[in-house]
Every structure is written in C-alpha cells, then in structure tokens.
Give the backbone structure.
Amino acid sequence: MEAKKEAGCPRCAIGDHGRAPRADGLKHEITSPRPTVEQLMAWDFDGICEATDGCRVEPDGRCPHGHTSWLRLVGIV
Ligand SMILES: [Zn+2]
Ligand SMILES: [Zn+2]
C-alpha cells in the first residue's frame, strides 16, 4: 500500500479561509490528529484549545483559517 502524503485542508489550499458554505461544496477538512477525551478536558480547563488544523484558539472560537476549535466541534462548549 502506498503511503499518502498529508495533503492538508483543500479549502485552505486555495486560500479561502472563510466559514460560509461554498457553491462548489469545498469544506475545511480536519488536518490535525483527533484529540483524546483527556486532551479535550485539559483544553477546557486551560481555556485554550486547538482548532482542527492545529492552531491555538479560544475554546469556543475559530482560527484565522476558518477552522473551528475541537471543543466546539465535539459540542463541549
Ligand atoms: Zn481549512
Ligand atoms: Zn488555522
């Protein structure tokens, strides 16, 4: 089996860091490893979180690239 190189987020790749749905359906895709429950709890406790592309964001925020925080994604905040 061929190892696939990390392609990154397709929407960020074209320079679109917006949040609104696109006519072509291109979405931000998760590019950072999914955090464990323990990691999510630690972020919640610290008041800082990672977005789905690995940026540091507010627990209920989004990064400048349009990626949402993990805590928000999983519905903790
Ligand atoms: Zn993106
Ligand atoms: Zn980002």
About this structure: The first helix runs from residue 10 to 13. Helices lie at 10-13, 37-46, 70-73. Residues 9, 11-12, 28, 53, 65-67 surround zinc ion (ligand 1) (CB under 6 Å). The chain is about 25% helix and 5% strand.
